[in-house]
Amino acid sequence: MEMHISLRSLEVFHAVMEMGSVSRAAEMLNLTRPAVSIALSKFEQDLGFQLFHRSKGYFEPTDEAQLLHHETEQGLLSIERIKTRAAQIRGGGVGVINISSNGACAINLLPWVIADFQKVHTRVRVDLLVRSSRKIASWVAGRQSDIGLIDAPVPIPGLTTEIIRSRCVAVLPQGHPLARESVLYPHHLRDQSIIAITGDHSIDRQVDGICAAEHVTIYRRVSASYFAIARNMVRAGAGLAIIDAVNGMADLGDGIVWRPFQPAIYFELAILTNPEQELPQPAQAFLSDLRRALPNTQPDA
Q1: How far is CA 134 from the centre of its chain?
Q2: Which member of 24, 135, 150, 206 has the greatest number of CB atoms within 10 A?
């Protein structure tokens, strides 16, 4: 028996899985809650198995739903790429570059690289998505993204990986007493509130190891998942931070200054491409622009 699956069914299922509830999925899709429930029931009938356990209005995904979720996401991304490419062809464009990035580069680097790139490549569209490192690696492996930028190490084997290693910097308010120092050392962090990077980040592990060797105790009362957010926390007065040079050295006019930190703390950025997919010429040109932008983030100690 031939199975018929509608695009709307895929969209509804994906929205419920991503949003975590039927109500939020309905709001995102601009549908009523009953309409979403009916669409899910129809999708289950088409598939021939149950996707959700229903109890007092709650929808809990089954194991089968979890298995199907990834494939559904990949399918919807493929459809979006087809739509985008068709629109480009219809409008006389010459290509689309799909970039997936973590927060480290997406906020204070890629917008400027993209803007400069499009001054030359005026008919190329660049789509930038911010996701987790594992999701980005999965997209590059599945050819949903042309170029991925993530924290090293790479969570999925088999991808072409270029590691960019850069020195981290300490960021602090312009009026902070330590701003008078030309270089910061572990003893400068004593009795300071240091903003952590969420998730047992390699930068924090390096700082902890160096400070432990110098018998300096680190106080962390707040953490941030993105370097750019950590910088804004510094601006708000939550403490000091040691972050990547891309975000730390950015000239944003926000009253934040950076200082080299000794001994050196390093951040490793991985640029990912798929070895089985030859990058189109516009994507190769963008990758060259990106490489040129990154070396300028190396601070002098």
Answers
A1: 9
A2: 150
